[in-house]
Amino acid sequence: MKRPSRLASVLAATLLAGLVLAPAAKAARCGNGAAGFDSWKEAYAQEARAAGHSQQAVDALLDTHYNHPTIGADRGQHSFHLSLDDFLAKRGGPVIASRGRSYKQRLAPLFDNIEARYGVPPGPLLAIWGMETGFGSVHGNQHALSAIATLAYDCRRSEYFTDQLNAFLTLIDRGRVDPGARGSMHGEIGQTQFLPKNILEYGVGGSLEASSAALMSTANFLHAHGWRAGAGYQPGEPNFAAIQAWNAAPVYEKAIALIGNKIDRTE
């Protein structure tokens, strides 16, 4: 076997050393205040380009701002620490149940179709719709991409919201979400407040700004998380786990189950 020349050996060793010692490309790192956001954004935009996101998505990311209200809301969420009775009073539980019963009658063909397809009855869907946006009356007025980019940068839950940011950029790539879409404090969008990754995985029927698509998508989410047609959804019953997958706050989960039951039990 022919042995490599000394020159070739030296060049190979030099190249290997260069690869080992060369600095890695600067990765976007999380932070805990507004000061580092712009630097993080520039670094993340490079990662987004390398990942194959469209120029439109990258430009939208570069146009985001550090969203102070989002950080304030993320550090707050005091209502989730209330008792069930206090939470229902604060969030208007009796009004949601009353209006939900009215919508159940008015939109009966839609709910019949949804239940036939996904096995989910109207009650929990109406409870979620009412709890999230007051049946579409309040979608939130935050710049959704800025909210999600802020939380992806923020160290508290950076990994979780980095996934959401990547999903948002993909939705922009595919033309499914406007880069300037408005939403709630954590970047949730639409009539039942979907995060971007859930839009990608469970969004059906068109824009979630439309009530029919939002309700179908919500039913699709619950079905995908184990909802069984005809089974109960109160705490301890089979379908309560699907409601828990929708929101991790125990008081919220119990409120949805209770309000949904009041809607479904009224004919």
From TrEMBL:
Task: Name the SUPFAM superfamilies for this protein.
Answer: Lysozyme-like
Please list which residues make up the signal peptide: 1-27
**Transglycosylase SLT domain spans which residues?**
37-233
Matching InterPro entries, A to Z?
A: Lysozyme-like_dom_sf, MltB-like, SLT_2
Q: What is this protein called?
A: Murein transglycosylase
The domain of life for this entry's organism is Bacteria
Q: Which GO terms describe its molecular function?
A: peptidoglycan lytic transglycosylase activity
GO BP term, example: peptidoglycan catabolic process
Record's keyword terms, sorted: Signal
PANTHER family, A to Z? LYTIC MUREIN TRANSGLYCOSYLASE, MEMBRANE-BOUND LYTIC MUREIN TRANSGLYCOSYLASE B
Q: Which Pfam families match?
A: SLT_2
